[in-house]
Every structure is written in C-alpha cells, then in structure tokens.
Amino acid sequence: MDNVNINPKERLNIVDQEQKEFFLDYLNQAGFFNLEELHPLYKQSSPEQIDDIRLKVVMMAGIGKNLSLEGDFIEAKRSLDAAQEIAEKNLDTIKEDCLAFIYYEHGLFYSIVGDYLNAKRYVILAKTHAVSKNLELLIDFQIEFFNAHKSSHVDVQGLLPFLNEFQTRNMHYMEVMVLVRLGIIYEGRKDWKNADYYFREGLKIAKEKNIYYLMDMIHNSIGFTHANKGEYNQALNVLNSALEDVKSYYYRTLMMENIGYVYYQKLDYKAASVHYLEAYNYAKAHNVISQLPEECLFLGDCYKQMGNVQQALLYYKLGYDHAFHQIVEGFGLNGYRKKAMTTYQTYLERMIYRKFDGQSLENPFEFSLGKEWREIRNLFQYHLIMHHKEKSFSRDLFLTRLEMKSSTYYTLQSKLKKQGFQIPGIKEVNVSIPDDVVIETLNLYIRNNLEQLNWVESNMLFEKDIFSYLYRQYGFQKNRLGAALNLSQPIIRAKTDAAVYAYEPGLNR
Q: Cβ-count burial of 394 within 10 angstroms (0-12 exposed, 13-18 middle, 19+ buried)?
C-alpha cells in the first residue's frame, strides 16, 4: 500500500469500500509520504463527529501518530491515550485489528520517546489481538527491532528477513524503515561501513517512491554519522543541502540541531549556540516539544564553555522546565529529559558551593541530614550569633554588625536556651563556641558567605542555600523533604522555590 498518488482525503472518503487490513496499513504509512496534505487533513479532522466508533478511535490513533512524527509528543500522547481509553471501554466492538492498531501505534510512540519498556509492552499487547497478516508483520518487525537494538551483532540479522517480506508485499516504506534502523544500529556501534551502506540503500528506495519523510530521516542520519566520524565538512554539506527541501518540522529541527552539534564537536561554541538557538526557536514555533530539553541542555553547555555562567544557568533551567513539564504529562524520566533535569540541578549546586573560596568543603551542610528544620535553624542561628560574638568587642558593635535590636536578641536567647544551647548574655562578647559543640563546616560557611550580612539577610541566604542542598539530598521529592524536616507542603514549596530561583537572576519572574 504505497500508492502515493492517492489523495488522503479521497482515500478516507472511500474507507467503507476498503478492506480493514489495507485501511490500517494505509493509516500506518500515512505520515511518511505526504506531509503537506496530511497536516491539514489531520488538523481539520474531528473524530468526535465520527459515528462509527471503530473509525473514530483509529482516526484518533492516526492523529496521534502524525503528531508524534512531528515531535508534538504531548498532544500525540493525549490523542493516543484517548483512543485507547475509548477502545478499552468498548471491547465488544473495538477488537482484533482495530484494537491491535491502537496498541501498535502506542508502542511506536513510546519507542520514539525512548521508553522501550512501554514500547515493547504495547507492541506485544498488539500482537495478541492482531489478525491481519500485514499488521502481524509490522508488529513482529518492531519486536525484533527492540531486541536487536540492545543485543549483539548476531541478533541484527533477525531484521534482514523482513526486507524480503516487505518487498514482496510492496510495503516499500517499511522496507526503507528496516534499512534505516539497521543503519542506526550500526552507526551506534561505530560500524561506519555498514551504517553507510544501509542508509544509502534506504535513501535510494525512498527517492524512487517519493517517501519524503524517510528521505528527511535518512539525510539527517547521514549528516549525524559524518559528524560522529569527525567528517565535519561532509556533515555540514549533507545537512545544509537537506534543509533546503525538508518537509518535516521534526526533521528540520533535528537538522538544525545537528548543524549546531557539528560546531559543538569542533569546539566552536559560539557558532554552535547560534544554531542551537535557531533550532530551539523553530521547535517552539512549530510545537516540536520533543527536542526542547535537549536543545536547552546543549545551549547551557555552550554558554558554560564560553564562561557565561548566567546564560548557562538560564538555559539549563529552561531545559529542566521543559523536561519537568513532559514528565508531568506522563513521560518517563529518561533520555534527555533526565539529563536536562540532573544537569541543571548539579550546575546549580556547584554555583552555590563555588562561594566557599576554593576551600575543600564538599558537603557544607552535611550536619543537617536526618534533622528536622527547627533543629537545623537553631544550630545555624546559634553559630551565627557566636561567630559575631567572637568578632565583637562590645555589645553595641555586636548589635550593629547584625543590625539587631536588644529585644530581638533576648527573644533569641530565651528560645535557644530552651533548646539546650549555652547562649551568652547580650553584654558578653569576644567569646566562642566550645570545641566539643562547634560544627566547623557551618562556621566556615558563615565566615565565607555571611560576614558582611545582617541578621535577616544571613538567615535568608542560609535558607536558600540549605534548601538547595537538602532538596537534592532528598531526591528532589518535596513530600519526602517535608516529612524529613517536619514541615508542611506549602512551606516546603515556598522554601524550595526560593532556593532554586535565588540563583537565576537572568529569568524574568
């Protein structure tokens, strides 16, 4: 079913005359060969107005497929999830190939987003319902690909029989997909010779059959392979040439990224940042949300290499936000989503620690682990008071250093004494914490960071720094952090937000 001359609208109008097997095969191929007609068709489709519930859910799955091909993963997932929900509520009507097709497309979607566990689960589920030979063949190929993707070289040979099978059935786009995926597997193993062979063979057939989407896919893969081989001029030639005719929003974004990647590999971070920013803006404009965390991650890396700390933090945080939004929508914490989140968190923590004047202090707040917030704050306030007591030679100088009223000190003295701290009277100065009580890392933090700050400022900065540290230590889980510190969730949210945003002056909030 690769007759690319048939207008998709005409094809859908005669669906009642088509055999079910070929209609499903047609929808499965739809996104690969005529995006210019397919985009408006899917955008104008209104599945809710379709009376035939089987056609309705299949169209919803088709819309999800089209959206995923263009990188709009959130809307794709919503469409696929909605199709599955309707299908599973009407299993007396939606069954066999119709149900299998929905599961199959769900599996393909999860493979695109890098969640291979769910991908394989859905594809195997699809196999239990499929009855048509074409659909069974597609499912078997996907299962074999998942196995080959993570296994030895010998297992790659399991994909080769599908080439003949797809050729026999005139399923040319699937024939090309086998060749492309073989090329990708070999490229990942740095077997450049085989990667080049399979990409070239796939490109030849895609051109013969005018399968534009796969042509874009292969050009991008060839350019990326050249970049990984260090053949930068060849990579730029392939990618820049392909950009002139690329039909897919998704692959135009990827090609822009890979041009940036070439310059990144060449250590030309300024040029790389220009191309990554172009890709990022294009992806946002065309809702190719799948690429946003990765683009922000590379932009952050570029600015970090150029020594622009605040711009690096800005893009690391944007990458974190994009990844977090996708996770809220139900995507797994894997791939570039995971990398974008952990990179931002690590970078932010290093910015905090960099204030310790180069002294060896990996865990300045390690004393706080396992303690409730009240105890942590009391320890800090005791050490802060005693630090300024030691530095002062009079009562007035002590109060001036902290910009503190006498009444405030008396309140603090009473509170800390109740907690067992030997707090001196207001007139006692030039005194220090006993050696068996002092927490040296906390004292070092106060000396290096709070020396010139008053009481209120010191407490505010300490809270931001300590919550940044504790948030990371407790796995960035606010519920877990709240339980550990014995604080309510509204307070935890306020404290962690303040801790994070305190180090982002470049963000407009």
A: exposed
